[in-house]
Amino acid sequence: MADDKKDWYLLYCKGKEEPRALTNLKNQGIDSFYPTMTVEKRLRNKLILKDIAIFPNYLFVEIDKNTANFNSIRSTRGVIDFVKFGANYTKVPAALVAELRATQRCRDKSENAVTVFSAGEKVIIQDGAFKGIEAIYQCKDGLERSVLLINLINNTTTMSVANGEIKSKSESEY
């Protein structure tokens, strides 16, 4: 028997259709991987968490080259073709895919916090009526707001401010 181990290959997908291709490949019983990461995005002046592709338009698939139907994979909805160098399909080292998967699992387990301030950290208000005022971060107030402690006219007060309006004091010094 020749080589019956599976190899990882790289697929090129239609724009923004990687999730569709991933679902259709999994329905065919093909092990596939689409690495993403969660990032902060500003949408209509609000910070939101959004999953984005690490490699846009690309998908990793693990198949046995002796038994796999390459035409069926190429014809999967969302897939354009295999990435090739000349006439040869591009193989991806299994160690690279394993490392990307491990990194993905670590990212998925980490806290999905929009703001990374810790209690007691000094921040600067960037927008609004209190722009430029130094405050002390207290805690989150939902996904979009934070509670700050500010000192106004020798009177310490707590207030809730949108996360997009504050910045760490150490960031603003640079």
Structural descriptors:
174 residues; alpha+beta; Alpha-Beta Plaits; 4 helices; elongated
SSE order, one letter for each helix or strand: EHEEEEHEEEEHEEEEEH
* Number of domains as seen in the coordinates: 1
**For the record, what CATH class applies?**
Alpha Beta
Structural class: alpha+beta
Give the termini separation: 63 Å
β-sheet strand percentage: 35-45%
CATH architecture: 2-Layer Sandwich
Number of strands: 14
Quote the average pLDDT: 84
Poorly predicted runs are none
Number of helices: 4
CATH-defined topology: Alpha-Beta Plaits
Task: Write the CATH homologous superfamily.
Answer: NusG, N-terminal domain
Molecular shape? elongated
Q: Biggest β-sheet: count, sense, barrel?
A: 5 strands, antiparallel
Task: Kindly state the percentage of residues in helix.
Answer: 10-25%
Supply Rg. 24 Å
Structural commentary:
With about 170 residues, the chain is an alpha+beta fold. It has one domain: NusG, N-terminal domain (Alpha-Beta Plaits, 2-Layer Sandwich), CATH 3.30.70. The protein is about 20% helix and about 40% strand. It has helices at about 20-25, 70-75, 95-110, 170, and strands at about 5-15, 30-35, 35-45, 45-55, 60-65, 80, 85, 90, 90, 120-125, 135-140, 145-150, 155-160, 165-170. Strands 1, 2, 5, 6 and 9 form a five-stranded antiparallel beta sheet that branches. A five-stranded antiparallel beta sheet has the order 13-12-11-10-14. It has a two-stranded antiparallel sheet with strand order 3-4. The radius of gyration is 24 Å and the shape is elongated.
Describe what is shown at a glance.
20% of the residues lie in helices and 41% in strands. The protein has four helices and 14 strands.
